[in-house]
Amino acid sequence: MTAELKSADIQMIQRILPHRYPFLLVDKVVDIDGYKSARGIKNVTMNEPHFQGHFPGTPIMPGVTIVEAMAQTAGVMIGTAFDMMDSDMLIYFMNIDKCKFRRKVGPGDVLEMNIETVRGKPGGKIWKFSGKATVDGEAAAEAEFTAMVDLQKD
């Protein structure tokens, strides 16, 4: 049933990821192709708390939060592919490689995160992804990252 989901709105995202404001960094996930690929959307707004100090007068989204947004997109992709809504799934970074930042991201930008699975299998705990973040088609960041999927047991 849910393996057929091609997109996830904010309500579905919150059923998959444990993150909440101010650390929920993806607003919508679209173009979900099972556990192979997906595209996350983040509407960057001045209301986000990191802009108070990064940097006053010149608000720039921290690069680490862009990488986190890519990882959250991957988590939603996995969650929809394997029907993990309401499952208490946690995903932990294990490794970040080939991380590069290409342009500033700030309020008013729409950050798009294109994620592809490099390695992972149904039922597997360890996954590797490749992510590319863009704004208006211009490269903003890229990284490969490895994560562990952990289903919490009662």
UniProtKB/TrEMBL annotation:
Pfam families: FabA. InterPro entries: FabA_FabZ (IPR013114), FabZ (IPR010084), HotDog_dom_sf (IPR029069). It is found in: Cytoplasm. GO terms for biological process: fatty acid biosynthetic process; lipid A biosynthetic process. One of its GO terms (molecular function) is (3R)-hydroxyacyl-[acyl-carrier-protein] dehydratase activity. Its main location: cytoplasm. Keywords: Cytoplasm, Lipid A biosynthesis, Lipid biosynthesis, Lipid metabolism, Lyase. Its EC number is 4.2.1.59. Involved in unsaturated fatty acids biosynthesis. Catalyzes the dehydration of short chain beta-hydroxyacyl-ACPs and long chain saturated and unsaturated beta-hydroxyacyl-ACPs. Belongs to the thioester dehydratase family. FabZ subfamily. This is 3-hydroxyacyl-[acyl-carrier-protein] dehydratase FabZ. It comes from Parasedimentitalea maritima. The gene is fabZ.
